[in-house]
Design a protein that fits this description.
Elements: H1 21-30, H2 35-38, H3 48-51, H4 53-65, E1 70-74, H5 80-88, E2 93-97, E3 110-113, E4 120-127, E5 136-140, E6 146-151, E7 158-163, H6 173-180, E8 191-194, H7 196-207, E9 209-218, E10 220-221, E11 234-236, E12 239-241, E13 255-256, H8 257-264, E14 267-270, H9 271-277, H10 288-292, H11 294-311, E15 320-326
Parallel strand pairs: 1-2, 1-4, 2-3, 4-9, 10-13
Antiparallel strand pairs: 5-6, 5-8, 6-7, 9-15, 11-12, 14-15
This protein binds S-adenosylmethionine (SAM).
Amino acid sequence: MTGPISLGIPPMPPATTDPTWKRAWDAALYGPGGFFRRESPGSHFRTSVHASSLFARAVVELTHRAGLDTIVDIGAGRGELLREAHRIDPSLALLGVEVAPRPADLPDAVDWSPVLPSGVDGLVVANEWLDNVPCHVVEVDGSGVPRVVHIDPSTGRETLGAPLADRVVPPGLSAWCERWWPLTGAPAGTRAEVGTTRDEAWADVVRRVSRGLAVAVDYGHTREARPPFGSLTSYRAGRQVDVLPNGSRDLTAHVAVDALAARVGGSVLQQREALHTLGVSGARPPLDLATEDPRAYVAALSLAGEAAELTDVAGLGGFWWVVTAVEVDSPLGS
Ligand SMILES: C[S@@+](CC[C@H](N)C(=O)[O-])C[C@H]1O[C@@H](n2cnc3c(N)ncnc32)[C@H](O)[C@@H]1O
C-alpha cells in the first residue's frame, strides 16, 4: 500500500486570519477607536445599574454579608455602580476595570484600571460584561455541517467558513458545542454562539480571587432553551438596530450561563431571587404613610417602582447571577 507517510505528529494548525465574527466583533468594540473605547454604555442602553441605585445597594449588602470590604467592578462603564457604592459606604475599597478612560468626575476614592488586578480579596462583580465578550458564531449548512460564520464588517454580509471539526478552527469550539449547544441533526440555518471565550474570560477573573465572591450578572440562557438562531443584537442610542460589526454600535449576545457556572464552579440564580434575598422588594409602602408623611410615601413608592423593574422576570429580574464563593460562605446559597 502506498500513501503519505505519517510521523504520528499532527501538523500545527496554521494561524488563521479568517474574517470570523469573533475577529470582527473584537475590532468593532475594542479595536482602535472601537465602540466601547469612545462611547458611554449608558448613552446606548439601560442596565440595572442605570435603572436604580437599589442595584448598588444590593451589591454593597452582598459585600457586607460576605464579610468583605472591597468591590471590583469589571466592565465598569462610567463608574455608575462604584459611585453609588461609595455614596452608600465610603469605607469600601473600590476598583473599576474598564477599557474606557477613567471618568473625569469619578470620586478619588474609586480606583480605575484597564487591566484586571492580579489578586482580589473582595467581591468581584461584572454586570452585563460577558455578553459583550466577543465569541465565535457557527451555523449549520445545507448538508447539516456546522461551520464557523464569517462576516464582512462593512456590509454585514455573512459567509460560511471552515467546518467546526476542521483543524483551522480554534480548538475547543467543537467540544463546547457538543456539550452545551449541540447542533447534530439541527436544520440548516441553526446557529450557536460558542461560549468558550466568555467561559475563559470569567475563569480568568475567578482565578484571581483569593478570598471573596465573583458575581457575573447577565442575560443568558441554559441548555434547555438556547435560541435556535442565536441572539446577536446591536444597540445604538437606546434602540435595537441592524447587527453590524463596524464600530458604530454595540454588539451583544446572550451568555450560556450553565456552561459558565460549570467552568468556574458556582451557583446560578435569577436576579429576582438574588435581589429578594438581599432585601430589594417591589412591595408598595403602606397607604397610611401617604397621610402621615406624603413626601416619604412618594419617595418609597418611587423606590418600589424601581425595585419592581429590577425584579421583573420578564426584564431585568430574569437576568442570571452566576455566583462563585472562594474561602467565604455565599450569602446567596451554594
Ligand atoms: C454593557 S457595558 C456594561 C457597563 C456597566 N457594567 C453597566 O452595568 O452599566 C460593558 C462594559 O464592559 C467594558 N469592557 C468590555 N471588555 C472589557 C475588558 N476586557 N476590560 C475592561 N472593560 C471591558 C466595556 O468597555 C463596557 O463599558
